[in-house]
């Protein structure tokens, strides 16, 4: 039996907009409801985690897990610029207190993709003003809840805009976009360069009251200036958190692939690794941990990324089911980062829970072996706790450890939840 260290954190993760429901002041709510929306369906009441969080956290705890990563929704906290909602702060205080009462370590993400609608109307994630706005939001939250939060991820997948930018460039340069590109990002994002997208952005311009070309949500192609703004937001948040509660452990998360080279693909691998993580390291030197999020691998040939061969097992998202990718990514990260590593997302979208069980066991075996090698991995939160709203792809994707009948919001825990809890409590066979 391979048993993790006694203080190792194992649990699951969610994001507010994907599970809570009725996030009506957010940019995503607006984007889901405009005419010609590219979203398959609106989030609506999602899986009603906002009202059912106690039930969901107890299912996680009763299975044997000890950690829950979730996000606080900026659009709920500050629905109108400068007007903070104390009632919503109390809601998240209740969530945090419930975690502590039931011996669950809460890991809080301050920004997980969704933003207040007003922020996008003011320039969004390409505007210098966002740095100050994000700082004020962080100060408000941490000043009221910081004593209950041991770990904070400031921003989820800070490199996602860069990854989207690369996909768009590839698609624009191709005569016929490849089907594989639609699943090239580790989120439910379907990038479509056609006429539908043009109509969609025209509608967004009207909704946000700005030039359609200036609509800049977090999940959008990003300029170099936008990349710098994200990092300045992180640095600002970290400074505020440490000022208010120095004991809080602060980090940021990145979407990272296991980049593997075929003969001649080594240069392409090094380029992707540089862009995915290494470019950001100068901004992270004062962080306490690094959040690693991995779902699959990318194979590189002399001309760049090549699709999986016909023998590869694919997930419902369309990318390769390759659980050993996580251990390989840990090796890469540890060669450039000596502080603690927190695996904040890793998971599988499948309708066959036996595949999910296999994925979890193989992924965590890889994690255990890296800990034995001395890599300072401190936690693992599977994505996700619940089958949820997978952004543009709606409710068809099934990453969850718990299925939800959305007609009744009844929870149906899967065997994979029990397996993850057993590993947390006892280890891996």
Automatic annotation (TrEMBL):
Q: Which residues act catalytically here?
A: 345 (nucleophile)
Source superkingdom = Bacteria
GO MF terms on file? beta-glucosidase activity
**InterPro entries registered for this protein in UniProt:** GH, Glyco_hydro_1, Glyco_hydro_1_AS
State the UniProt keywords alphabetically: Glycosidase, Hydrolase
Q: Does the keyword Hydrolase apply?
A: yes
Q: What is its EC number?
A: 3.2.1.21
Whether Hydrolase counts among this entry's keywords is yes
Q: Name one Pfam family in it.
A: Glyco_hydro_1
Family of this protein: Belongs to the glycosyl hydrolase 1 family.
Name the record gives this protein: beta-glucosidase
The organism named in the record is Paenibacillus auburnensis
